[in-house]
User: What shape does this take?
Amino acid sequence: MTDPRPLILVVEDEAPIRRLLVSTLAAHGYRTADAATLQAARMLATTDPPDVLLLDLGLPDGDGVDLVRELRQWATFPILVLSARGQERDKVHALDAGADDYVQKPFGVPELLARIRASLRHAARREPAPAQPQIWGRDDACGFTVDLARRVVTQHRRGAADAEVKLTPTEFRLLAELVRQAGKVRLHAELLRAVWGPAYEHDVAYLRVYVGQLRQKLEPEPSRPRWFLTEPGVGYRLTEPDGD
Ligand code: CA
Assistant: This one.
């Protein structure tokens, strides 16, 4: 039987703080895993994705923000950044990279626990990513498959070998966001927040550009899209997949 307690991955290079976090979380009913470097954090987050990632930004082998950006390409678990950096732009930088919340050190344990609970509540409301590859245009001359778990997008053309479609990280994040709720209309602001971060929710032009790029790469006739549909003045909708 799987352990129902939420798993919190604690990434912090200062051993006393890491130990304090791990013991506090364990005392409050959470399972924990911990890492002191970016590399160890990346491995743990990938092999056993946590329910919440608590991430210190200043790590010996790099900047935590890079890991946020990397994980956000596929991971939906909440990322709570922990940092002594108090400056406004560091917070904005981390949030824009895809962190969900920011806790400044030194922090009070009750506040930290409250923010973890809030992150878990938000995560529970998110649609999980489909685990199986999803196919669009299954019986057509042209179509594509999205495998979010493996981060691979493949194009199919009748009479030709399947070919992997190269997407930029931003294109992939937008595609993943659309795939997660395929068939539903996604509002401009909702997509902008999810892909670029809360500071960008009014930048509809970004979205137009990137949806255009996805159409160029995946639609047989990009100017007459059949999968990546525009809902004028509202947002976009990816049609439901044809099965897996
Ligand atoms: Ca540190």
Remarks:
- Helices lie at 15-27, 38-47, 64-71, 88-97, 109-125, 169-180, 188-195, 204-218.
- The radius of gyration is 20 Å.
